[in-house]
Amino acid sequence: MPHYSWYPEDDPRHHTGRLHDMLTAVVRVAREELGKVDEPRAQEFLETTAEVCAGLETAFERYERRD
Question: Which domain of life is it from (predicted)?
Fold first, then answer.
């Protein structure tokens, strides 16, 4: 069960948790796709996507922990 469901719907962490889970999926898919393309620009774009989303993941985690 996703971690956002731990929080009631009126808690902002419920909603940020949903987005966090989506970002996690984007990072995973971007890195999986990276190995399937040979074009350097496409590889760079996929890696950049993964890195940016990973940074956002970290920000959401910190928010959820109330750091």
Answer: Bacteria
